[in-house]
Amino acid sequence: MTVKTPKYVLTQAEEKPSFIRQHWLLFSLLGLAAMAFVIGRYSNIDVLNAFKGQKETWEEVNQELALTNEQQLKTISRLQTEVKVKEQAIAELQRNLMLLTEEKDTLRVDLAFYENLLSHKDDIKSLRVFDLEASGDTDMLSIKLVLAQKLQRAQVVEGVIGLQLTGIVEGQGQVLDLVDQFKLDDAYSFKYFQIKKYTISLPKGFIPTTLLVELQSNNKRQSAITETFDWSEIWREKALEQALSAASQTD
Question: Domain 124-250 adopts which CATH fold?
């Protein structure tokens, strides 16, 4: 009896790759994506933190700049105020200097007047017009009249003043009664001297030539005193020049 040996055929089973190996590329991509997400998230946090820190720094810098700007504006305002005060002070000093100069000139003229008055005290025997001058223009004309009498043992004299201004208008002579026309204060009363000042406005086209001054005492026993002055001699420019010249000679 024969024994039949079974026949087996050994074949190597075909090795199939695993699921992961089959899809390694996909898993690799997913892993890379996950890593990129994690890294990106933390990187974004760092960037945000960096931006937040930079923002805080910028805010601090901006506050410092705003504070500095405010301080500079205050400094500029203070300096502008100081400059304005200095300019006002300089302008005030210039005005004061001008006023002092004018006052000095006036005092020199007054001094020359008093010196002239004293120097002629022996020549002034009775009431007279000691000085007369005019200044300004036709719109506003000023007349200064100085009356004087003897300085020794003088008594008060009183009376009225008459002023007759002669001139030319369009080639024709004309006389203006200044006291009557302009309602001037015509009274005088003094012991040694008196200064009378008047302001008038001449008619348009009127050219003055002479001014007659009449002094009528209240004492009826005394005759009226009349003096006529050439206008060119009493005009202030010439009168002031003469007064300043006399004052400079006494310095």
Answer: Immunoglobulin-like (2.60.40)
Structure tokens at 162: 């008459």
Does the pLDDT of residue 215 top 80, yes or no?
Answer: yes
- Residue given tokens 């208008």 in the structure block: 169
Instruction: Please tell me whether residue 4 adopts helix, strand or coil conformation.
Output: coil
Q: Distance between CA 229 and CA 164 in Å, rounded? A: 10
* Contacts (Cβ under 8 Å, ≥6 apart) of 216: 159, 160, 161, 162, 224
Structure token pair of residue 67:
């504070």
Beta strands in 27-171 (DSSP E): 128-136, 141-148, 157-169
Distance separating alpha carbons of residues 140 and 179, to the nearest angstrom: 16
With a CB cutoff of 8 Å and minimum separation 6, the contacts of 143 are 132, 133, 134, 163, 178, 197, 198, 199, 200, 211
Mean pLDDT computed over 220-239? 82
Domain boundaries, the chain: 19-119, 124-250
Which pTM was predicted? 0.52
Q: Is the pLDDT of residue 31 over 80?
A: no
Average pLDDT of every residue of the chain? 78
